[in-house]
Amino acid sequence: MLSLVSIFLVGLGFSLGVGTQQSESHPSLSWQNCSAKGSCQSVSGSIVLDSNWRWLHDSGTTNCYDGNEWSTDLCPDASTCDKNCYIEGADYSGTYGITSSGAQLKLGFVTKGSYSTNIGSRVYLLRDESHYQLFKLKNHEFTFTVDDSQLPCGLNGALYFVEMAEDGGAKPGAQYGMGYCDAQCPHDMKFITGEANVKDWKPQETDENAGNGHYGACCTEMDIWEANSQATAYTPHICSKTGIYRCEGTECGDNDANQRYNGVCDKDGCDFNSYRLGNKTFWGPGLTVDSNKAMIVVTQFTTSNNQDSGELSEIRRIYVQGGKTIQNSDTNVQGITTTNKITQAFCDETKVTFGDTNDFKAKGGFSGLSKSLESGAVLVLSLWDDHSVNMLWLDSTYPTDSAGKPGADRGPCAITSGDPKDVESQSPNASVTFSDIKFGPIDSTY
């Protein structure tokens, strides 16, 4: 495979060179900005591939990062790596299985290119060649159409927002998909805040293309859509730090150090998964919202005073399919007040009922999320498989030894499903299609 690298450059004076082996041409993706119902204007945008998927090499063609390890010659330390390495453009369709047409974007799963086999992808919506499109979600709704029919157990076609820097950090910045962060404080990022994450780098045992460095890349995350054909959830995660934050040690909240709830970010989030919340016939193949067919997904961020300046009070979900508007399912779990939306009260009750740590509240809850959303967030679209726990947290029973316990059953997939080697070999043609993105005031986009 091509070498993978992701780079976070946030104004510390670091700047990677740009290679000349492959030109960078961003696929177009239009979306609509609405001012009122029936009054929407088309916006010309484009998408850019995350730098994590790109080839990184020296002034010739020698890899700076190969497989899941750094070159000890080219990257013995952060500053030397930055001086030696160049990042390449992307062949979006040929190498990565990414295609767009008008307002539609399709992400393929396994793509066999001329020189490599690529697995999944992550892209961002651009405003222009140098800046990501920022969305200020409070007192607004975000709408899109999605087709998850080709995603089996173990895959995740995700659409979400993260508090990345608008320009992606130092050069080459957003133009090359720099600056990713999320609430899991991922350690597999090759560059964070402008420095190569080579310190203490260890290849992952379960992923031949990934490793983990000393540092993690943290920021607040709003998961609008995480789904395959069997299960779906939407989930806010809040961090106590503003913007991208390079963590180390305890503040990363690493699972392997038993410090998950000691870090700066809420990794669990406060999720609304209809199956987990007691309605197993609402979303899925042939169900009320039929995942065999495309659907419109509406997510509303209402405020206490119905103004942009108000504090976030509710996150609501509406579906539209076959011309029919379908309100989100109600909760059906003893101990949780019947509701079909995410509120602070809902989060508090689910944590108690499911026996989960209320890290969402501890890290700031709705008040913290409200402040975070004021600065604007970057739209992320991705397709991935899970080398940690096989996506069981989304579509199966997790933990696997807790079947029948409140909150443990999250989807109908078997606890033996989702192993990446199985998913990649058995479902290489899997894909997710996103289209018709709209953004505007409450009840203006559908």
Automatic annotation (TrEMBL):
Q: Which InterPro entries match?
A: ConA-like_dom_sf, Glyco_hydro_7, Glyco_hydro_7_sf
- Give the coiled coil ranges: none
- GO biological process: any one? cellulose catabolic process
> What are its E.C. numbers?
3.2.1.91
Region (Disordered) residue spans: 400-430
Q: Write down the superkingdom of origin.
A: Eukaryota
Mind listing the UniProt keywords for this protein, alphabetically? Carbohydrate metabolism, Cellulose degradation, Glycosidase, Hydrolase, Polysaccharide degradation, Signal
Pfam families xref list = Glyco_hydro_7
Single GO molecular function: cellulose 1,4-beta-cellobiosidase activity
Catalytic activities: Hydrolysis of (1->4)-beta-D-glucosidic linkages in cellulose and cellotetraose, releasing cellobiose from the non-reducing ends of the chains
Q: Which region is the signal sequence?
A: 1-17
For the keyword Amino-acid biosynthesis, the answer is: no
The similarity annotation says: Belongs to the glycosyl hydrolase 7 (cellulase C) family.
Q: What is this protein called?
A: cellulose 1,4-beta-cellobiosidase (non-reducing end)
